[in-house]
Each structure stands twice: as structure tokens, then as C-alpha cells.
Design goal:
Distance between the termini: 71 Å
Oligomer: single chain
Number of helices: 30
Length: 709
């Protein structure tokens, strides 16, 4: 056997045992000796595909295709590689490269429906709607049963002002959608494609004709609330209740009708009235469904699913409301699942077992804040279990899994998830956030470990009697902080964590990232639902002081909420005697790198009243963008303040909304001052975001909780 034959056998054997790196190395040696060895090129391409080394695979596939131009399998694989490279370019913000890669994918295989879909999405996101429509139609033609493709096609119809075509398509899809995400998207697009009244009339007709569409109907009502149409949501919920097939469906509807809140309020008076109405409806719900009645109904635990997420953005002390709801939901869930009402006795073990439970162990705000908790506790003498709610995974998820001793994915059903979590036999369960996911909140309402705690991933008290402690940041809390929580408050120093800092991209010109070339740019990066009506006068005051002011925000996919915001801003500016037209620039969502470039290109970040920036503030500080803030009454409105104090730039902290506007204008219009502030921030950032002190304090608090058990 020749040397080349032996190397070829080595390559085959390595591939057979799934050692793809070794297979590539052996194939390299074969090709070095015989450049025309087609089988070695094919094996090397397949090994690269297994390793997701798309560019490497492309080189060999191109070589093979040049010799066999009609080979369908080679063309399909080459198309997949270019599509994957396009996805990678898009994730990195290299949109032109992504566009080119998707087109190379279609050049190799014009029937690649996924490539048509991905290119169509990219074209839609970059406002090339006509071209997007063509590719999305090709994608749907290739995979007519793919509902995700069809929903994106409906979105393209809307972008091309073909609303009738979108409505016709969405009406058909409403009866087919099954996943919650698809139901949400279908409802949202229907409200974009038609006027609210037409969309609601169509929804009524669908719900009457198809009684089995109750889940879609609830999602449509949820979308109405996101569009700030609370009255419309309650009207349709009443119709749904008439056709509800069982007690569980009726309870779901009654909870949504009682506790549903709009994303935005037209004014402070409406917000206050809505809060009072919420309190009354909550009281009525608890009275209508006492725990013994819930127990007799023998409902699935999912019927009680709710999260109260939007309550935190009203700017009030939520302890009383959350405690009333938390006591009821916890007692009701424990009545339905009595096997989870009391913690099991724990035996002695060499190391205490800690379970960290979340649906957000991935690249997001929660991931950036609490990744260091996982990694520190995993090497600090705890037997750590990383417990996932849901199936979202990415590179950070894999990194965190390596830091834990166990990784567990919970089943979807609440009862099954609770059983799995209880059988983990943890001494402590720690939830980085509670209030952003109804599934996680339902688990927290049960007693699945002797000690249960949460952190400020959603910075509001849970009200749950089953949660013993709330971890917060000492420097962000006011003097009366303990009166804001139903849980025992445990404070951590500094930022409360070692933050996962972003990698900064190269800056870009304003024009390249969709910003105005001229004017003073005031960045307001928060989602619209976080913009309390009190913020409006701040923006009007800035615009009155600075005629060149332009406000950079991110648009909402919910057209009704955007309409409410636009009308509210117009009134605030008119009251100040100025025009709002042309002052506000709404950007589309974008990859993290591009988002950071927006920070770099703006002049100042204007923090929001009542609910300050957290992750957004840290992004701004890393990007060298000064923040002006006015701290609120509660921790959730004081995060930026604590960061700025720690960084020794307290002159950016205002004491009133008027002073906030004044300081924003002063900073935005003084480039030397901005440069000096950026230099001071850069000097102090390592101490703020890289300190291990919060992690040691967290460990000490957890061990103290364990000792008191």
C-alpha cells in the first residue's frame, strides 16, 4: 500500500469515527501528494460541513463543482455553505457581505428555499421591500407548509402596501398557526395590515367561525394590549369567554381581562386610572376564584400562567399589588399541585446543591448580567445545576453549561417541570429574574427547595410568599428599599455582578448606520413601553433649548403603541410651543455591533425617568457615550445613577426632570467636555464591571441563607 493510500485510509477511518479534525488533516496530506484526488476533496468538504467550517467547505465544493458542474448534491451543499456564511455575516452586522453570500447560495442552487427566505428577510430589514417580496414568494412556493415563511411573506406584502393580500394570507394562517410565537406574529401583522376596527372585526369573525381558535384569540387580545387598545382587548376577551369550552379556558380569559395592561398610556391621568382599575380587578379576580374553588376545578397549572411584567413600568410601589397577586397565584398553584407545596427534607451532602433557573441563559441582558454568577458559583464549592426553561440556546449557553456541574432542560408542562426541578433535590433555587416569563414565575410560586431566591433581572418585587430573598444592588437602592419588597432584601456591592462587557466594533459614519448627518443626537435606547408619560416634557424641554436636537429611538413593531407615543409627544411639544415633526428618528432593530455603533455616533444618552437604563447604560458607557440621568424612587429607576457615581461622574446626575434636560443639552453641545467624560468613564469602567467583590458577597449571602435553614 502506497503512502497516499495509507493516508487516504487514515482519512476515511477518522471520518468514520467522527474525528473530523483528524479527517481533514489526513485529507490535507492526501491532497498535498495528489491534488486531483477527488475523493479526498469530497471527504474534506464533508468533514468541514460537520464542523460548520463553511468557508473551508466552499473551497473544496467549488473545486468539485468545477469538475462536475451538473452534480446536484454538490450544488446543494455549496448553497448551504454560502447561506450559513450569509447568516454569520448578518449576525456580525456585515449586511452587504450577507447579501452577497445569500446570492451566491442561490447561484449554486436557485431552489434553496431557506436562502430565498434569509435573503428576503435581509432585504425587508434593510427596507428593500419590493425585492424582498420576490424572494419570500419563492421561499413559500418552495415550502408551502412552512408557516414562518408565510408569515414573513405577509410582512413583505404590508411593506409593499399590498395590505389586502396580507390580510387574505393572514386570515388563512390564523387557522393554521400552532406555536405561540407564530400566533403572536400573525396577530401583530393583522393589526398592521388593517385598521384596528377592520382587524378586530376580522378577528371576531374568525373566532365565531372557529371556536377552536381560543389560543389564537387570546394572543390577538394580547397584541391589542401591546397596541395600547385595552378596551378592544377586553371586548374580544368577553366574546372568547362566551365560546370557552372549559373552566381552564375561562380562567385564562378572566386573568387576562383582569390583569392585562397596555404597553403605553396616552397621558399620566390614564395611567393612574388604569392602575386603580387594575387594583380593583385584581381584588375581584381573587374573590371570584378563591383557592378552594380553583382546587375543585382541577385545572392544569398552565391556566394560571401570567407574569405582571408591565406593572413595573407604571412608576409606582408595586409591593401591595404584587403581594395580593403573588399570594393568590402561589396558593392556587400549590392547591392544584399539592405535591409541590412543601420542600422535601434534604439529606447531608459534601457540597450544597444550588440550582439556577431561567429561560434566559443566553446572549441577552440577563445573560450579560448573570453569566459571572454561574461561572463564579460553579467553582466556589457549590454543586451547581444550570436549569433551562425553554429551548433557546447560543454560544453563551454553551459557555455557561461548561461552568456548571449539571445542565438540565425542563419539560414544557409546569407540573412536569416542577417534578424535574424538585427531583434535583437542590438546597437553594436561585432565579436570576422573575416576572419576564410566566413559566418560570409558575415554578417560583411552588416550594421546590427549602430556600428560594431571585435577583433583579426584572427589578420588581415578585410578591410570592414562596420566594425568601431578593438580591439587589446596594448602591442602587434608596434608604427605604425594604418597604418595596415582599422578600428579604439582600444587597450586593457595586454593580452586583461582574458584567459581561461587549466587544466594541469599529465606529461608522452616521449615514452608514441610518442616522442624520446633521443635528445634535440625543439617544433614547429604551423600548417604547418603558417611556412613562413624564418623559415627554424632558424631550420637549431639550428641543426648546436646542433647535438642532434630534432624538434617536428604536421603533416598535406594535403600530398602535407607536401611534399613542407620536400623539403624546406632539401634545407635549405643542404645550412647549414647538413642533415635534422631524425631531424623532426611529431605527429598526439591529445586531449588537451596529447597536453599539449607534451609541458611538450619538452625542448623549438621555436616561428614562422611573425606569432607568441597565444594560443600555452599560453599553453606552462602554461606547464612550455620556449618560445624563435623574434617579427615581425605586431601584429600577436608579441603576444609571449608581453607575455614574461609581465612575466619579456624578455631575451627570440631575435632581429634577428640568435639570435633566438642561444637563443633556449642555453635555451634547460641548465636545471637549464629552471627551473628558469618556476618558474618566474608560478609566473607571474596569473597577465597575470587572470587580469580584459582588460575587464574593453573593456567595456569602447564599451560605448565610443555607446556615439559617
Amino acid at each position: 500500500m502506497s503512502g497516499t493510500d495509507r493516508q487516504w485510509r487514515d482519512a476515511q477511518d477518522a471520518f468514520a469515527r467522527a474525528d473530523f479534525d483528524a479527517a481533514i488533516a489526513a485529507a490535507d496530506r492526501v491532497i498535498a501528494a495528489d491534488a486531483a484526488h477527488a475523493q479526498a476533496h469530497a471527504l474534506r468538504a464533508n468533514a468541514a460541513l460537520k464542523l460548520e467550517r463553511w468557508a473551508d467547505a466552499v473551497a473544496d465544493l467549488d473545486w468539485l463543482l468545477a469538475r462536475q458542474p451538473g452534480h446536484a448534491a454538490i450544488r446543494r451543499n455549496l448553497s448551504v455553505c454560502w447561506m450559513r456564511l450569509g447568516n454569520r455575516h448578518k449576525d456580525n452586522g456585515a449586511l452587504a457581505d450577507a447579501d452577497a453570500a445569500y446570492r451566491r447560495a442561490l447561484g449554486a442552487n436557485p431552489d434553496n428555499a431557506d436562502a430565498h427566505f434569509n435573503l428576503g428577510m435581509l432585504l425587508l430589514e434593510t427596507r428593500r421591500a419590493a425585492a424582498a417580496l420576490e424572494h419570500l414568494q419563492r421561499a413559500v412556493a418552495g415550502e408551502p407548509a412552512n408557516l414562518a415563511f408565510a408569515l414573513k411573506l405577509a410582512e413583505a406584502h404590508i411593506a409593499n402596501d399590498a395590505n389586502d393580500a396580507a390580510v387574505s394570507l393572514l386570515e388563512r394562517l390564523a387557522a393554521q398557526t400552532s406555536s405561540r410565537e407564530q400566533m403572536q406574529q400573525c396577530a401583530r401583522l393583522l393589526l398592521r395590515a388593517a385598521s384596528p376596527q377592520v382587524a378586530k372585526a376580522l378577528a371576531k369573525r374568525l373566532l365565531k367561525a372557529h371556536p377552536g381558535l381560543g389560543a389564537w384569540g387570546r394572543e390577538f387580545c394580547r397584541q391589542l394590549r401591546k397596541d395600547s387598545d385595552l378596551a378592544g382587548s377586553r371586548e374580544l376577551l368577553a366574546l372568547l369567554r362566551e365560546h370557552a369550552g372549559d373552566d381552564a379556558e375561562r380562567l385564562r380569559i378572566d386573568i387576562a381581562s383582569a390583569l392585562g395592561l397596555p404597553n403605553l398610556y396616552p397621558d399620566q391621568a390614564t395611567l393612574a386610572a388604569t392602575r386603580d382599575d387594575y387594583a380593583a380587578r385584581l381584588r375581584a379576580l381573587v374573590e371570584a376564584y378563591p383557592v378552594d374553588r380553583v382546587a375543585c376545578l382541577a385545572l392544569p397549572a398552565e391556566a394560571l400562567g401570567w407574569d405582571n411584567f408591565l406593572l413595573a413600568y407604571q412608576g409606582g410601589n408595586d409591593r401591595a399589588l404584587q403581594s395580593r397577586y403573588g399570594a393568590w397565584s402561589s396558593a392556587a398553584l400549590q392547591a392544584l399541585l399539592p405535591q409541590f407545596a412543601h420542600a422535601r427534607a434534604r439529606g447531608a451532602r459534601a457540597r450544597p446543591r444550588l440550582a439556577m433557573v431561567s429561560s434566559r441563559f443566553h446572549e441577552c441582558t440577563v445573560g450579560a448580567y448573570f453569566a459571572s454568577w454561574v461561572e463564579h458559583l460553579g467553582r466556589s464549592g457549590w454543586e451547581l445545576a444550570l436549569v433551562h426553561v425553554g429551548d433557546h440556546r447560543d454560544g453563551l449557553s454553551l459557555r455557561l453549561a461548561r461552568a456548571a456541574q449539571h445542565e438540565i432542560a425542563l419539560p414544557e408542562a409546569v407540573a412536569d417541570a416542577a417534578r424535574t426541578l424538585q427531583e434535583l433535590d437542590a438546597d437553594i433555587i436561585l432565579y436570576p429574574e422573575l416576572g419576564m416569563d410566566y413559566r418560570t414565575l409558575a415554578l417560583a410560586a411552588l416550594r421546590l427547595a427549602p430556600i428560594q431566591a431571585c435577583a433583579w433581572g426584572h427589578p420588581d418585587t415578585t410578591g410570592l410568599p414562596s420566594i425568601d430573598a431578593f438580591f439587589s444592588c446596594a448602591e442602587m437602592e434608596p434608604a427605604d428599599a425594604s418597604t418595596h419588597y415582599s422578600e428579604t432584601l439582600l444587597a450586593l456591592p457595586g454593580l452586583g455582578t461582574r458584567y459581561l462587557s461587549p466587544a466594541l466594533p469599529e465606529p461608522a459614519t452616521r449615514a452608514a448606520i441610518g442616522l442624520p448627518d446633521r443635528g445634535t443626537l440625543y439617544f433614547v435606547p429604551q423600548s417604547l413601553f418603558k417611556l412613562h408619560p413624564d418623559n415627554d416634557r424632558v424631550y420637549a424641554s431639550i428641543a426648546r433649548r436646542d433647535p438642532a436636537a434630534k432624538f434617536i429611538l428604536f421603533d416598535s413593531p406594535d403600530t398602535g403603541a407607536r401611534s399613542v407615543f407620536d400623539a403624546r409627544i406632539a401634545r407635549a411639544f405643542a404645550t412647549a410651543g414647538i413642533e415635534a415633526a422631524g425631531r424623532f428618528v426611529f431605527l429598526l432593530p439591529r445586531p449588537r455591533a451596529d447597536y453599539l455603533r449607534v451609541n458611538m455616533a450619538c452625542d448623549v444618552m438621555v436616561d428614562t425617568l422611573h425606569f432607568s437604563g441597565g444594560n443600555t447604560s452599560l453599553d453606552a458607557l462602554h461606547a464612550g457615550l455620556p449618560i445624563v440621568t435623574c434617579p427615581g424612587r425605586f431601584m429600577r429607576g436608579r441603576q444609571s445613577m449608581a453607575m455614574l457615581r461609581h465612575l466619579d461622574v456624578a455631575d451627570l446626575i440631575a435632581h429634577t426632570p428640568d435639570q435633566l434636560a438642561e444637563r443633556a443639552v449642555a453635555v451634547a453641545n460641548e465636545p471637549p467636555r464629552r471627551a473628558a467624560l469618556a476618558q474618566r468613564v474608560r478609566a473607571g469602567l474596569p473597577d465597575l464591571v470587572q470587580s469580584d467583590a459582588p460575587l464574593h458577597a453573593l456567595d456569602a449571602h447564599l451560605r448565610a441563607l443555607l446556615a439559617r435553614r
